Amino acid sequence: MQTTVFNTESYHYPQNFADIKPKLEQLQQAIKKLEANLIDADSDTDIVMSSELKVDYASELNPNQLLAATTIEGKVLVIAGAGSGKTKTLTYRTSYLLENGVAAKQILLLTFTRKAANEIKSRAKALLTNSLTDEQLSEDALSTHIAPTSKALNDITSGTFHSFCNRLLRQYSGLLGINPRFTILDTGDSEDAIDLIYKEKKYPVQTKKQAFPRKRTLQNLFSTSRNRRIPISELVEDNYPDIAMHIPIIEQLAIDFHEYKRANHLYDFDDIISQVVRHLKTNDKFRQLLQESYRYVMVDEYQDTNIPQKQLIDLICAPASVSLMVVGDDNQSIYAFRGANYENILLFGETYPEAKLIKLEQNYRSTPAVLDYVNALSAQITLGYQKQLYSNASITGDKPVFSRASDETKEAKYIADTIAAHKADYDYSDYAVLCRTSFQSNYVQLEFMERGIPFIVVGGIKFVERRHVKDVLAFIKILYNPNDTIAWHRILTLFKGVGAVTATRLTQAINGADNSFEPLLLPKFSKKSPQLEPLYMTLSKAQQAQSVATTIELILEFYIPILKTAEENWRERSEDFRVLKNLANEHNSLDDFLENLALDPPNDSVATADKPEDDDNDKVTISTIHSAKGLEWPIVFVNSLVDGMTPHHRSLDDFEELEEERKLFYVACSRAKNKLYLTAPDYFASYSGYFDKPSRFIAELPADKVEVKSSLKGLAALASADPVWW
Fold first, then answer.
1. Which of 700, 698, 635, 709 lies closest to 403 in space, CA to CA?
2. Which of 144, 346, 628, 721 is least crowded, fewest Cβ atoms below 10 Å from its Cβ?
């Protein structure tokens, strides 16, 4: 019997396990049913490859990757373990479909980032092009081989769920009976709209004892309710019991928010997908059109889908003639806070009873020693498909190291010392420090600054969420859709003398004047601010602009003087406008420009993009675990591993939330290629409580999976004498 590192009996078990046991049993039955349909290249299938294929698939893929790439009929779930070559498999499957005569227009590739879709298509293009013979390349490659290949790949419909649905709503607006000139509200815009409606409606206040929830909380409630199909009242009672007395007003506000968007041709992120799903259910012609158009559907990161996204896939792929392959890893389902539903991937066999299961378990990332630890973590996940990652690497590598320090300062010092000790063998960019929440990196950042260790912090305010960027985009939005009252309010309240009431009245006047800008010149409004007349002139000129770039130049000419008076660091902020100018040159219309920024925005400012690449790129990455998903580093530190921090204390009483926390730790550890360091302070104290037990995720594993170190007096010796040392 294997011993564990700690005595796990002292850890609190979730109180709601008995309540959800029937649900867990249903999920387990669905998993077993699909496991029975497992197909394996080593035992079940002889793959016969045509000699006419340009790409040598059999020599470039491992057996199960090959099986996944060449199984192009029916419904298939591919469980792709961490580092198992998921993107490579999708790339070769795309190439294989084209080589087998599938029309590119019949292929639909859905991913969670545009970058992922473009990477698969660009790799497939390179794969097909590089497979040409010298004779083909020298004689007629451009006209006969390369050009058709490139064109075919361009004809594949690919992108994120949101961009795909946005395209459908605009392309088929006539069939669906909707206005194609809608604008898209990002999360911040939705929050502002909710706040504006609340203030304008003047709902009766039922109590003064508890403040009404903030706009961010309300937006999150509305979005979560829609994506997870949970009533608002239930969400409030379970997650925000302190504001339960406001439930009637919150529910009415959600209704009013929806009606407000429809009246002003506004769609938020949730609307884009849910509207397509609604029309697929109710419009037979629209549904049949899509089912006939897309005969080969591929979905990446299926474990991250929410309920509307699953419904979209199921409605398009309902006919048996439509081929569907979804790829994902149930162990990496970590986005419930965004509405992702981990049940989707577990219930795939229940949705499609004839579906096949393929597993990719050969890992190309981590050493066998790291994989041994990752597999031990996987074994502790209650629900999921059986999987055992393995590597053919000849060097076993070092076991992960768990180290405790007396406090967070000492923990940060240990991380910095370890980096310094290995600096001769690794660049700074080979290291990552991964945290459960961003504040847990504060001591690490301070230590790195004191030691002169260069680092970057992944996260912070996204580009399109910066106030000055949102201001400029608001101008463009009203030029495209003058009904966008949220954009109007943002612009008008920039001016001294124009408050929320005047902005509302002026917006109503503009909408009542058939969206003419003339009301800006009316004396009753223009006397409020001398800037309304220049605003009218700017918007009138921008309407006549021949390009998106010219439009932005006119807007910036008007806006930058306003920014100067509002912000001392206006020069630094204005550097971000170069990003907008560069993006503007890539688009021919305002709607394309706005869609690109709303659905696939830049992650960070590129104000320094013109600087030459040098040693400044050699920096340690500090990131939240959520932001690190899909990435890898030779050496990874996972810090703050105290029970109550990892897992988070709010998850300890909920079985499903605790399971997701365990998966989050799994994701963090599986980012490591060569070395994995796990660290924890001796205690953590905050308003939430006092936590001093090591994380249960470490405590529950066999002692031989990790090397234990500690700076606490006598603890290391105790660990070596008796594995059960907690």
1. 709
2. 721
